[in-house]
TrEMBL record:
Species, as recorded: Nostoc punctiforme (strain ATCC 29133 / PCC 73102)
Domain named PAC: residues: 298-350
Xref: PROSITE patterns: HIS_KIN, PAC, PAS, RESPONSE_REGULATORY
Catalysed reactions, as listed in the record: ATP + protein L-histidine = ADP + protein N-phospho-L-histidine
Protein name: Circadian input-output histidine kinase CikA
GO molecular function, one term: ATP binding
Subcellular location: Membrane
One GO CC annotation: plasma membrane
Recorded coiled-coil stretches: none
Species classification: Bacteria, Bacillati, Cyanobacteriota, Cyanophyceae, Nostocales
Length: 738
């Protein structure tokens, strides 16, 4: 009899198979980590590209449907998804956010645990808060989340999302997820380091290029006045090579005047004050010397000694370059050869004095004419009125005719004097507008009442119509009356028979006053000369109609002073239409004060009047601005001219707003771009094919900021200096939206 021993080896085979599967998974995870460690994408510092590689690789290794990287916002009130990879669609997306206020247990778990391995995510106490708004919607059953730590601070989380049956996460998978989070940390560090290094490299390259290629001589001098470096132009000015000038005393080549040493000490002292340290120079400086040290530099004209012994006139600007601790380290001297300018100064001085004398003579002449001509004209017009009223005795028909002629001629001469003075004042930029709300009906009544007798004398029908919902316009009362009278008087003058009308209408950009007549009309070929001073279009009209041509020239200048214009349409022999356009005023400090001084250099206003008639429609603009007043005025202005505008006061919702609004143009406060996190957002935006061409305009506080904007070539398209002027703003709108 034989005994056969047999046992069930199925259980043993299953155990070995499970061990083999786990071993294969560990090997695959190790290979993935090695692959990421060797990846060249990390070395390039492109955060968006690195995150895409990490999420794709992690999803393929752990065999999950979705892997996302979420980072805290600046206020740490929520986490935002900056990259989410979906295995099914093989696409990346971004923009979702989770608020800490709504999910406190989940956020607390992120702070306390190395990984959150939620096998049953819907019922797990750490993640069940996410069930209704997130997990159930997407069909997520299991979560493996690994917090991202940077310099001992929690900055985000990597989420591995499993869809389908519940999944039991292994210890090896938790360890792998933690390693993936560490790789995200490395990617963020590399990106920030790359931004800093690139900015430094560009700065150094630009400095060297400017130094070598500048058309002005540049010298770098140490605090002992010894020359450290010179550019080719300075070598040419002094006649020495760079090697010959090295380590020589800078003051040996520059003529020194009394007080120069004190100016240099004051310059160094200012740097010491700015760094919060006490200067080692103690002395008193005069007011005159203090003015010479302007904006932390010295500006002066001195003669330099050339190698051949000749003297070269130069303009020298000296500033101080501090070290990393704020202590003065070098003098930077900018030297321009002005010998030719000095030689021509004497020649120009004579012509300049002659021009100034002519200008003074013109001013004195106008002032004298204003007084000397008005005085006798007052007598002429006053006495002729007395004669017309026959106070001193009756007049016969011929005498009455002569007296009327005297009065009308005096009136014409007085109007001519006024026009000349006004035109001269406007052209010199001395005219001031006293802006105030004015009833349009009162303005029209005044103008019609003033010219009605002239129209009646010629048998003309004079009418006016006001087509306005609100009977108010904002303008200078005296000047708008003057403009309306000029247009109406002109229409009556050149209309032998028929009618003259004034029509007031509201248009989207402002208000129009249109004066129409059935007069002689104007040849379209003559329009170009219509608004020139002292110009009548047809010499034959000079004999038939009196006038100097000042009225229309002055009217257009006054209209443009208001931010508007005067336009004309006409048919020869049928009549003309002159339209005075006044724009809607945009709130500004000058309007609130009731006064708008016309000065192109005035920096006191944030906005002036809008005057462009063509605005593209159906465009969306996103404004990212911290300062509420600037944002509010900009938003109201853009909306008033037809744009859809969304304003956010921080960067937190930036990507989300871009994704939902799909803006045609973005205005971005430059102060926000100084944060590394914002640079990352802008770079992510630029690297997304859908938004890479969206124009971004950086709003800066001053013009020199443009140099810093050049450090963001991949992000910013243009810049806009605050206070914002509509001329520049309109130019940007037309450039990017028309």
């Amino acid at each position: 009899m034989q005994v056969v021993s047999a046992r069930d080896i199925a259980e043993q085979n299953q155990s070995q198979e499970a061990l083999q599967i786990r071993e294969n998974s560990r090997r695959k995870q190790s290979q993935t980590l090695v692959q990421l460690a060797r990846s060249k994408t990390f070395q390039q510092g492109n955060l968006n590209a690195v995150l895409k590689e990490i999420t794709e690789t992690a999803a393929q290794t752990l065999l999950v449907k979705r892997v996302g990287v979420w980072l805290y916002n600046e206020e740490r009130s929520k986490i935002e998804c900056i990259d989410l990879y979906d295995v099914n669609t093989k696409e990346h997306s971004f923009g979702n956010s989770l608020s800490q206020e709504n999910y406190p247990a989940y956020f607390q778990a992120l702070e306390e645990e190395r990984t959150i391995a939620a096998n049953d995510a819907i019922n797990d106490t750490r993640t069940q808060e996410l069930s209704q708004p997130y997990l159930c919607v997407l069909g997520i059953t299991s979560l493996l989340d690994a917090p991202i730590w940077l310099e001992g601070r929690l900055v985000g989380v990597v989420c591995h999302e499993h869809i389908g049956e519940l999944r039991q996460w292994t210890l090896e998978e938790e360890t792998f997820a933690g390693s993936i989070a560490d790789f995200v940390t490395l990617a963020i560090e590399a990106s920030e380091r790359n931004v800093v290094q690139e900015a430094l490299r560009q700065s150094e390259a630009k400095f060297r290029a400017i130094f070598e290629r500048s058309s002005i001589g540049i010298g770098l001098i140490d605090m002992k006045a010894q020359i450290v470096d010179t550019n080719p132009v300075l070598c040419e000015i002094l006649g020495y090579s760079r090697e010959e000038l090295y380590a020589k005393r800078f003051t040996d080549y520059i003529s020194i005047q009394k007080g120069d040493l004190k100016l240099y000490k004051q310059l160094v002292s200012e740097i010491g004050k700015n760094s919060g340290k006490t200067s080692r120079f103690g002395f008193q400086i005069s007011k005159l010397e203090e003015q010479a040290v302007d904006k932390h530099r010295i500006e002066m004209e001195r003669r330099c000694l050339h190698k051949d012994g000749s003297l070269v006139w130069t303009h020298i600007s000296v500033s101080v370059i501090p070290d990393s601790n704020g202590e003065p380290e070098f003098f930077l001297a900018m030297i321009e050869d002005i010998t030719e300018r000095k030689e021509t100064e004497l020649k120009l001085r004579a012509s300049q004095e002659a021009a100034e004398a002519a200008s003074r003579a013109k001013t004195e002449f106008l002032a004298t004419m204003s007084h000397e001509l008005r005085t006798p004209l007052n007598a002429i017009m006053g006495l002729s009125q007395l004669l017309q009223q026959e106070i001193v005795g009756s007049l016969n028909e011929k005498q009455n005719e002569y007296v009327s002629c005297i009065y009308s001629s005096g009136e014409h001469l007085l109007a001519l004097i006024n026009d000349i003075l006004d035109l001269s004042k406007v052209e010199e930029g001395k005219e001031e507008l006293l802006l105030s709300p004015l009833p349009v009906s009162d303005l029209c009544n005044y103008a019609i009442w003033t010219v009605r007798d002239r129209a009646s004398e010629k048998g003309l029908k004079l009418t006016y119509k006001i087509d306005l919902q609100e009977d108010i316009c904002i303008a200078d009362e005296r000047r708008i009356k003057q403009m309306l009278l000029n247009l109406l008087t002109n229409a009556i003058k050149f209309t032998p028979v028929g009618n003259v009308s004034l029509v007031v209408k509201k248009v989207p950009q402002g208000i129009t006053f249109t004066v129409s007549d059935t007069g002689i009309g104007i040849d379209p070929n003559q329009f170009q000369f219509l608004f020139e001073p002292f110009k009548q279009l047809d010499s034959r009209l000079n004999r038939q109609y009196e006038g100097t041509g000042l009225g229309l020239a002055l009217t257009r200048k006054l209209a443009r002073l208001h931010g508007g214009d005067v336009t004309v349409t006409s048919t020869l022999g049928e009549g003309s239409q002159f339209t005075l356009f006044l724009p809607n005023p945009v709130p500004s400090k000058a309007v609130e004060d009731g006064k708008n001084e016309v000065d192109e250099g005035d920096e006191g206003e944030e906005f002036t009047f809008f005057s462009s008639p063509d605005i593209p429609k159906n465009k969306t603009i996103l404004v990212v601005e911290e300062e509420e007043k600037t944002a509010t005025v900009l938003q109201e202005y853009l909306e008033s001219i037809g744009y859809k505008v969304k304003w956010i006061d921080n960067e937190n919702d930036f990507l989300k707003q871009v994704q939902s609004l799909k803006p045609d143009l973005v205005f971005f406060d430059f102060q926000l771009t100084k944060k590394t996190s914002i640079l990352n957002l802008l770079n992510i935006l630029r690297q997304n094919p859908s938004w890479k061409d969206t124009p971004i305009v950086i709003m800066t506080l001053s013009e020199p900021i443009e140099k810093e904007i050049n450090k963001l070539p991949a992000s910013a398209n243009d810049y806009l200096v605050k206070p914002i002027r509509t001329v520049k703003l309109e130019s940007l709108l037309m450039r990017y939206l028309s």
